[in-house]
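Title: Prediction job returns without error message
Component: structure pipeline
Severity: low
Priority: P3
Assignee: unassigned

Description:
Job completed but the reporter wants confirmation the result is attached to the right record. Sequence as submitted:
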Amino acid sequence: MISEFKKINQNQIIIVLSLFCILISIVLPLFFINGYETYGYSSGKEVNIVGLEGLKYKKNQVRKISGYIDQENIQEILEYANKFSSDNDTDYMKTEQKYPGMYYFLQNAYSSYGEENSFSIKDIDSNETLKEAQKNKVKTKMYASGESLQPSEEEVKIFELLEKNDNPIRFDFVDQWPIIIKSLIFTYGAIIFLAIIMASRLFSVEKNTKMDKIINQRNVEVKQRIIVNKLKMFYGYILLVFLLCTLTIFAIVLIPLGIQGIESQIQVIPDLFSSIYLWSIGEMISKYILGAFLSICAIGGFGILINYITKNDLSTFMLTICFSVFPIILKSSLLNSYKLSKIIQIFPVHGVNVLSYMDSLSIYSLGDKVFLPYYLICLVSIVIFIMSNYIILRKSKMN
């Protein structure tokens, strides 16, 4: 397998790209940590606290009130907020000082989709539960553009799905998790590019070096052994880089900040309250990592198949880039075509960006069963991965 790696690592390009992936897995979390800012109100004035110091300050503040949120907690916070004048700044500062993070959470939860910044928690009906607030949020998100593009039967199934959620929301410090997610998205994008470059050289390298004629003269068993070694090298190397980058990001963020909030629902994270995924943050992170790796393997497998057929670096590179990039472009340009956008939604490349499916209201029905995009993305990725490698091994037996 080492000899196969040396063949495709011409001009050290694979090593350079691998080091680049590891480099951005170090730089990105540090960049996002450095860009973080929060505010303190203990002095009666708003004080800006940035970077790691800000994250640790927020963690210590939220720790004072962390726990499950029930209707009694919400009513207590609203009663406290209503003691102050109609001045939103004073209202916010006083409430934030006593209940760190809760003003913003309730503002985000109870406001209509897209109107979060102009909403005051004084307008909340104290009898409205968080489950009802989530359903209202999802409904306003559906009709944010004026008219819902989803069929009415899908809307019914979405609200039935939300109705089944009986898990109370646990409020905790979760600001380290968006930093991890953003870092992983960009890093996994770089690993896709690495996989495409490797796939573009895997079988064409023999043709480029005039070794293909010698290999073709060997018996089927020897040729199959070479192909298997190439596939093992490719997927093993991608797995190694994937794990190194993932563990690097986790170490940089979690060593100073801890895993607090891992059991909280994803709805605690800003901008995900309207998500129809009923996962904890721990579930989301673990499923995202698995889905992203399957997506990278599917894209790599597609590229390897093209390279095996064409034995051409450039055509493999261009076709695999199209396979990876076009679904992203089409998804954003087909917003008014709901059925087509649902098909594009489950292409493997979308498994690398957790926000592309976590923020989606699309569902897929099979009889009474309802499937969310994540599971279809994983299924499609597995099918492409298996079929690509099967076709290569099958064709190698016939040659």
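Comment from assignee: result matches the submitted record. The chain has two domains: 2-32+175-398, 40-150.
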